[in-house]
Amino acid sequence: MLLLGIETSCDDTATAVVRDGRVALSNVSTNQDAFHAKFGGIVPEIASRQHVALLGAAVQDALERASATLAELDGIAVTAGPGLIGSLVVGVASAKALAFASGKPLYAVNHLHGHIFAPFLESGVEPEYPFLALLVSGGHSQLVHVASPLDLRVVGRTRDDAAGEAFDKTARLLGLPFPGGPAIDRLAREGNPAAFAFPRHRAEGASLDMSFSGLKTSVKYFLESRAGRGANRADVAASFQAAVVDVLIDRLGRAARRGAYRAAVLSGGVAANSELQSAFARWGRRAGIPALVPHLRFCTDNAAMIAAAADRQGEAVRADPLTLSADPNLPFEPLGLAATP
Ligand code: KG4
Ligand code: ZN
């Protein structure tokens, strides 16, 4: 199956052509960071205007790089939610128009499901079920039990900030540029992760939930204290990062002990974090199960992952090109809600 993927849920204008949910014949992403950086965060109105300006050429570009034509496609997969409404609407409207004009099937994909299938792009690895996914992005941090492409259940989540949000907010406290995750990752390489003992959220009873807002607040108070004002910023970054990684790996380990998992998957923008990747790989070796991470270009938002999910979810996410609506709060489950007018 040859699918065109379109992803505009946040600030990346992304398109891709993917064969059989595995081979990314093209993967185009126009990052808008330069437009948002001076505001220290994403400005929704700017994001949607940029999508309008960029998406037409991005679709053309993805097709050309894949040496494919609209007529050769087997369908069009688009992110229907969750995300910023103004941004989602641009991708959904374009996908509906392309599907209607070409008569090709339209697939409405949940952005988070896309992240979960990203590790199976260009990796030669096929999903074996059930697998456990640790999904960590700017908007979400959750543990997902994946019994099949059509049966995904959230078993643990953050109670407040997403892991990526904690990185972005802490980077701001440290005076680092937006987006903060990559900046902290780089700075932390020069620091000592054991320099400061920032608090780790402890698991409560049988819950697999996590929390990061207390950690961020504690870094804030520390930086305002006398000791903090003179502290080495690389040490603060490394110590903060170590605390996030500890909490994530702790909850992952607890979740993994509850099921006979064939693999674990790390995905979402924060999966690009070098320390988290190393800790995840070490954990996988200890636990004795394959620990899969997407290629860097498929970690952060991209359209190939949307096509990868649509390929596996098929008819369950088929949508009507005349009635599909973007849903900024699209629920993670049940599947196929996006396809219901
Ligand atoms: O998945 P994503 O591209 O967009 C959302 O759906 O949210 O994730 C973006 C998030 C941002 O918070 C960014 O700071 C974080 O991923 N991020 C990182 C790294 N690269 C991106 N966080 C930590 N370390 C990184 N290397
Ligand atoms: Zn994302």
Provide a descriptive summary of the structure in words.
- It is built from twelve helices and eleven strands.
- The protein is an alpha/beta fold and 341 residues long.
- It folds into two domains: 155 residues, Nucleotidyltransferase, domain 5, CATH 3.30.420.40; 167 residues, ATPase, nucleotide binding domain (Nucleotidyltransferase, domain 5, 2-Layer Sandwich), CATH 3.30.420.
- A six-stranded mixed β-sheet has the order 3-2-1-4-5-11, with helices on both faces.
- Helix 4 packs across helix 12 and helix 5 packs parallel to helix 7.
- The longest helix has 24 residues.
- The C terminus is likely disordered.
- The site of 5'-O-[(R)-(carboxyoxy)(hydroxy)phosphoryl]adenosine has 19 residues, from helix 5 and helix 6.
How is this fold's topology laid out?
Elements: E1 2-7, E2 12-19, E3 23-31, H1 33-36, H2 44-65, E4 75-81, H3 85-102, E5 106-110, H4 111-117, E6 131-136, E7 141-148, E8 151-157, H5 163-173, H6 180-188, H7 213-224, H8 226-229, H9 233-256, E9 263-267, H10 274-287, E10 291-292, H11 296-299, H12 304-313, E11 318-319
This protein binds 5'-O-[(R)-(carboxyoxy)(hydroxy)phosphoryl]adenosine and zinc ion (ZN).
Zinc ion is lined by residues 111, 115, 137, 268-269, 301.
Give me some keywords for this one.
single chain, 341 residues, alpha/beta, Nucleotidyltransferase, domain 5, 2 domains, five-stranded mixed beta sheet, 12 helices, 11 strands, disordered C terminus, binds 5'-O-[(R)-(carboxyoxy)(hydroxy)phosphoryl]adenosine, binds zinc ion
Please outline what is shown here.
By secondary structure, the protein is α/β, with parallel strands linked by helices. It has helices at residues 33-36, 44-65, 85-102, 111-117, 163-173, 180-188, 213-224, 226-229, 233-256, 274-287, 296-299, 304-313; strands at residues 2-7, 12-19, 23-31, 75-81, 106-110, 131-136, 141-148, 151-157, 263-267, 291-292, 318-319. The chain is built from twelve helices and eleven strands.
